[in-house]
Amino acid sequence: MENYPSYQRPLDEPIWGRSSYDIHHSTAPMQSSSVLTQSPCPHHTTVVQSSSKPPAESDIYRVGIYGWRKRCLYFFICTLTIVVILNLMVTVWLLRVLDISQEGMGAMKIGDDSLRIIGEAQFERPVRFNELSTSLGGTLKIESSEGVNIIARNVTAHQTASLNMKSDGTTEAICDQFEIWDNSKKKIFFANSKEVGMKLENLHILDDGGSIFEGAIQTDLVRPLSNKPLSLESPTRSLKLDAGQDIELNSAAGEIQLSSLNDITLSSKKGAIRLESNDIFISGLPKFEGRTGISHFQLCMCDNGRLFLSAQGADCRAESQICG
């Protein structure tokens, strides 16, 4: 090491002042004027010293954010952190309150091709769906304080039928034909603008006063309930039974009564009227007392066809007040 000159550098020199080095040789003379000889040691340390002055404070370039910019950056980071934490807290709270899961939200479960609601659901806007059903064993309840209106439309969006259940208690069905079918796909009732039909084995009218029909009635059979009499009444008008062929009134185990406030007329254009029975009772006929005064009577008829009773053996000629 004695063969190399000594290099010195001030110890108080800053790091940024080491961009250029001034190498000062020491004043100590070289101990040998010959070419540098190799040191017996293969490794050596060279000390370099510089006597240059450090740069001024104004020439120093500082890397980083200082002062009010640094404080604003810290404030922004803290504010952003608080907002993110509050957002996460509100999100977790909404998930807990609304019960949002992978299957749906709360009582509403969303499937691939269906929407299932557990419990009651309230809709404030119109709802459109192809099918509405309940779970197995449940009942479907549709409730509205202003009424329920069900509308059906065709492919061109024109209304074809509607069912309107109003809040005042009236129900309206608007359609071309109204039909009722049973579980076996058998039509039991239909109504359109031309006719109303019922295909039933028995039509039971529960009202004690019976049923009132303003027009004509066409039927194959009129039959009462078991152990109940059949009564055909016309309180103020005539009763007319009309058929293209025969009319048969049959009571297998009861009575047949025909009563009217006015006349009851039995007429036959070509045939005869037959009364076939072991006992025929005609009561309420006017009586004519003969000379004998016995209790047996004979049946007499006036020229106009009126029947009256007369004493047995008496003259059937009656006074004008009877046959008049």
TrEMBL record:
Which Pfam families does its entry note?
Sarcoglycan_1 (PF04790)
Membrane topology type:
Single-pass type II membrane protein
Q: Could you state one GO cellular component term attached to this entry?
A: sarcolemma
Q: Would you tell me the protein name for this molecule?
A: Sarcoglycan zeta
Keywords in alphabetical order, please: Cell membrane, Cytoplasm, Cytoskeleton, Disulfide bond, Glycoprotein, Membrane, Signal-anchor, Transmembrane, Transmembrane helix
Looking at the UniProt entry, the stretches that span the membrane are: 72-95
Classify the source by domain of life: Eukaryota
Which InterPro entries did the record assign?
Answer: Sarcoglycan, Sarcoglycan_gamma/delta/zeta
Localization, UniProt = Cell membrane, Sarcolemma; Cytoplasm, Cytoskeleton
The segments labelled Disordered in the record are 33-55
Compositional bias of type Polar residues: which residue ranges?
33-53
Q: Which family does it belong to?
A: Belongs to the sarcoglycan beta/delta/gamma/zeta family.
Phylogenetic placement of the source organism: Eukaryota, Metazoa, Ecdysozoa, Nematoda, Chromadorea
